[in-house]
TrEMBL record:
Family: Belongs to the carbohydrate kinase pfkB family. Belongs to the carbohydrate kinase PfkB family. Ribokinase subfamily.
Lineage: Bacteria, Pseudomonadati, Pseudomonadota, Alphaproteobacteria, Hyphomicrobiales
Broad class of the protein's primary localization: cytoplasm
Name of protein: Ribokinase
Keyword Magnesium recorded: yes
GO molecular function, one term: metal ion binding
Gene name in the database record: rbsK
Localization terms from the record: Cytoplasm
Regulation: Activated by a monovalent cation that binds near, but not in, the active site. The most likely occupant of the site in vivo is potassium. Ion binding induces a conformational change that may alter substrate affinity.
Domain Carbohydrate kinase PfkB: 8-295
Length: 308
């Protein structure tokens, strides 16, 4: 029987710098905070899904170094089953994250390191993990050929596929047809469809375009404006969950994807899964960091209970 969530993605060590603004080229400014923690979109999503109650396997590659040790500890603490190749020839990935101290906005540079070498052969080696899961999730931080092969394996095995096309970059059109759910944010959706997502009608037009390309459903996250679940038969807009002051939006998208996928794996219908994802993200933005900000299933259920 298929069970839980498998995720292909990258781990990076997040090095986060808090400051009033970004420096310009050639300028040095004083920051007001610094932290090192676990990150990477796929890794964050794995932690989010596990803390949200799912059985989770995470497929990736890391280096044999201090940041790699951080990855292993992160999965042990979160209850994620690591399916990792440890490399001696490449370092574990790392990310520079600027966080605006006034409003929580962020800018990020990612170097994937060992995870940048994930190939089709690595995906084939994890075939059984993918085929035995109920939900499979991937993104575009690792090479696209690996994402495509993993989606093909999942689809052929009858696993529900979730594709988060982030960061925004060109990928083969075949990936749309391999995606039961495609989950871009408003910036990524705009890059995919070629027009801005300024209104809810724009988001619905974008959803139509993504469905026309073959996606089963489009789930477009709209930042503070909530989330649109758009299928051939329904189009539902759900608002954000405001559970406290927003201090760091860095991991919000990953929190949503992880919570959404966990809810799907638990048998919730898509609309309820979107609500669950919204609650997960709503809690995460009230905390600093990415993986460390992911809420527990009890916290998520408590928020949902107060908003029905």
């Amino acid at each position: 029987m298929k069970n839980g969530v498998s995720i292909l993605g990258i781990f990076v060590a997040d090095t986060a710098y808090l400051a009033a603004r970004m420096p310009v080229v050639g300028e040095t400014i004083r920051g007001s905070g610094f932290a090192v923690g676990p990150g990477g979109k796929g890794s964050n999503q794995a932690v989010a899904a596990a803390r949200a109650g799912a059985t989770v396997s995470f497929i990736s590659k890391i280096g044999r170094d201090t940041f790699g040790d951080l990855a292993q500890k992160t999965y042990a603490d979160a209850g994620v089953t690591p399916v990792l190749t440890v490399m001696d020839t490449e370092p574990t990935g790392a990310a520079f994250i600027y966080v605006n101290e006034n409003n929580g906005d962020n800018a990020i540079i990612v170097y994937p390191g060992a995870a940048g070498t994930i190939g089709v052969e690595d995906v084939e080696a994890a075939r059984v993990t993918i085929e035995q899961s109920a939900i499979f999730v991937t993104q575009l931080e690792q090479p696209v050929a690996a994402a495509q092969r993993a989606l093909e394996i999942a689809r052929n095995a009858g696993v529900v596929t979730v594709f988060n096309p982030a960061p925004a970059e060109i990928f083969p059109d075949v990936l749309y047809g391999l995606s039961d759910y495609i989950i871009p944010n408003e910036t990524e959706a705009a890059a995919l469809v070629g027009f801005g997502i300024e209104t809810l009608d724009d988001a619905r037009r974008a959803g139509d375009a993504l469905l026309k390309r073959g996606a089963g459903a489009a789930v477009i996250t709209l930042g503070g404006r909530g989330v649109l679940l758009h299928t051939s038969g329904q189009s539902d807009h759900l608002p954000v969950f405001s559970v406290g002051p927003v201090i760091d939006t860095t991991g919000a998208g990953d929190a949503f994807v992880g919570g959404f996928s966990a809810a799907l794996s638990a048998g919730r219908d898509p609309l309820e899964a979107v609500r669950f994802g919204c609650a997960t993200a709503g809690i995460s933005v009230t905390r600093r960091g990415t993986a460390p900000a992911m809420p527990s299933v009890a916290e998520i259920e408590a928020v949902l209970a107060t908003t029905h």
